[in-house]
Amino acid sequence: MSHKHRITILAGDGIGPEVMAEAVRILAAVECTCGFTVARTEHLVGGAAIDATGHPLPPETLQACEKADAILFGSVGGPKWENLPPDLQPERGALLPLRKHFGLFANLRPGICLPALTHASPVKQELIAGGFDVLCVRELTGGVYFGAPKGRHEENGEPVALDTMIYKKSEIERIARVAFTAAMGRKKRLLSVDKANVLASSVLWRETLIEIAREFPEVELSHMYVDNAAMQLIRRPGSFDVLVTENLFGDILSDELAMISGSLGMLPSASLGTCNSNGLAFGMYEPSGGSAPDIAGLGVANPVAQILSLAMLLRFSLGEGAAAEAIENAVALTIQEGFRTADIATGLPHETQVGTRAMGEAVLARL
Ligand code: NAD
Prior knowledge:
single chain, 367 residues, 38% helix, binds nicotinamide-adenine-dinucleotide
């Protein structure tokens, strides 16, 4: 009997609906070939929802997400809504509440530079020959962004501001398990990034990672200070497999990784909650980039990040790993054969420059 899954699609603003249309066509194709069905409902979010209902995350959108196994998210925001009060703005008013509501504590950001796209990376070619494939696992709901006390006051007539970097052991344990599990499905190498030479929260982080490593004897665990990790990522990205780190360090390192990978239009991301007994988690999957208002409506956006976000959804929330792999292979083949949207095109003779729809079609043809 075929598995039946349910997802909610939130395409959002800007290029969101354009790239989502391609991901949905790919989903329909893998449903046919891989023998499962995905019931899907589409709802408004972000600026589109503000225009229609006055709120970036209307109650019916949230209710639809609650009934689903996962959310496939496009992107939100744009100049039209930039001057609204912060809580009514598309990102603050929709993305953050969704993360909070569903307890999405694990952010998975792959940084993949395919061998055919190393020229798009700002890193010297000789350092990234053959491309690289790194997965950054970032803790998303703890650390200095949320720690208390936090705020501003005066001391001896002078303004003072403080933030608190705080982690409970249980918060570190659960993100460690996500990272070890991800490493098990890859090259079985996990690098934990911390600042244990200075920060008490990092000492607990490191101790806990070493403890959890006993549950995953096949995974080789190593440690690196965050300042060194920032340098080594540029110097030898190909030597990394999975790296796991706390919220602030992960915020910075995952963007560094996106930058050295070449194009934002190629990179998916996943934000996951707690795993169930089958090892699957509710998650929200979205491109690493934003709504790209500069190219919205032109039909030139790269749909690959959205398509690869769908692949992550199939793997981590629906347990359809074979379909995920088929999509990832089809994308790699499409790039290898020279299909390029404008963001990754260089004008080399073997390249065919295409728009959003044709790129989606090229992937579909190679599935
Ligand atoms: P952006 O990621 O939207 O765009 C940065 C650059 O990358 C632009 O030149 C854009 O054209 C390009 N780009 C991004 N995705 C692309 C794709 N798929 N194909 C080709 N080119 C692509 O970042 P920004 O310009 O800083 O932000 C634009 C809007 O998006 C803002 O309103 C911002 O708040 C919002 N935003 C939303 C999210 C989200 O929904 N998760 C994330 C980041 C930014």
